[in-house]
Design a protein that fits this description.
The protein has 217 residues and is mainly alpha-helical. It has two domains: 105 residues, no CATH class; 108 residues, no CATH class. Helix content is 44%, strand content 10%. It contains nine helices and eight strands. The strands form four sheets. A two-stranded antiparallel ribbon has the order 1-2. Strands 3-4 form a two-stranded antiparallel sheet. Helix 5 runs antiparallel to helix 7. It is elongated, with a radius of gyration of 24 Å. The relative contact order is 0.07.
C-alpha cells in the first residue's frame, strides 16, 4: 500500500493525475488508504480515469497484487448517471450510488435523518439481546452500561451531530437496561436521570449524558 501511495503521489507531481484541491489552502487529495480499503480521488475526466487504470495495472505488474476490478466501484459526483455508467463499463467495474458505507460510516448520507442511524441503534439492541441482563446485579449492569453501551455510538458521535430523537432513544434503552435489565418493557426507575448522570462525588452514578459526549467529540 505504501508503494501504491508513492505511485499515486508521483503521478500527481508529474501532473498526469489531477487530484481534488481542498478549500482554505488545504492539500491536494488523491487517495485514502486504510487496511484493505483504497479510495483514489480526482477530478472527473477521461485522463484521470485512464491514468488510474494504468496505475493499478503497473501496481499489479510490480507487486503481483491484482485489484479485483469486479468488486471495485466508480462514483461520479455531479456527473450524469449515463456518463458514470459508460465510464464504469470501460473500466470494468460497478457503478456506485450515494450513500455508500466506508469504514462503517455512511458517506453522502444526510445524517440528521433518523433512518441513517439505525445501524447504531441495531448494534445496541443486539448487544443487549446477547446479555443475560436480568441475572446481573445493579453494579454489573452499571459497569456494562458505562464501559460498553455508552461507547458503542462514540464512533458515529465523533463525526456527526446525532439527532435529538436518536440520542433520546439510546439513552432510553440504557435506562431500561440499568433499572429493568432489558432493552424493552417497563419497570420502576428509582432515581431520576439527572441524578444518575451526576459525578459520584456529587451523589450520582457517573453516567455521562450522550448529548454531552457528542458535543465534546
Amino acid at each position: 500500500m505504501e508503494a501504491l501511495a508513492c505511485m499515486v503521489d508521483k503521478a500527481r507531481e508529474l501532473g498526469v493525475l489531477e487530484g481534488l484541491k481542498l478549500p482554505n489552502d488545504g492539500p491536494v487529495l488523491t487517495h485514502m488508504l486504510y487496511e484493505d480499503d483504497a479510495l483514489i480521488l480526482g477530478k472527473w475526466n477521461d485522463r484521470n480515469i485512464n491514468v488510474t487504470n494504468g496505475l493499478l495495472r503497473i501496481f499489479y505488474l510490480c507487486s503481483g497484487l491484482q485489484i479485483n476490478i469486479h468488486k471495485s466501484v466508480l462514483f461520479g459526483l455531479g456527473v450524469r448517471d449515463s456518463e458514470v455508467s459508460s465510464m464504469a463499463s470501460l473500466f470494468g467495474c460497478k457503478v456506485g450510488n450515494l450513500p455508500f458505507v466506508y469504514l462503517g460510516i455512511k458517506v453522502g448520507a444526510t445524517m440528521n435523518r433518523v433512518c441513517y442511524w439505525e445501524p447504531v441503534l441495531d448494534t445496541i439492541r443486539n448487544r443487549l439481546s446477547s446479555w443475560k441482563s436480568k441475572l446481573l446485579s445493579m453494579g454489573g449492569r452499571l459497569t456494562l452500561l458505562k464501559s460498553v453501551l455508552a461507547s458503542l455510538p462514540v464512533y458515529y458521535f465523533s463525526i456527526f451531530k446525532g439527532p435529538v430523537k436518536v440520542v433520546d432513544e439510546i439513552e432510553k434503552m440504557m435506562r431500561r437496561f440499568l433499572w429493568c435489565g432489558c432493552k424493552e418493557g417497563r419497570g420502576m426507575h428509582w432515581v431520576a436521570l439527572e441524578v444518575v448522570t451526576k459525578p459520584k462525588k456529587e451523589g450520582g452514578l457517573g453516567v455521562t449524558r450522550l448529548s454531552v459526549i457528542n458535543t465534546a467529540l
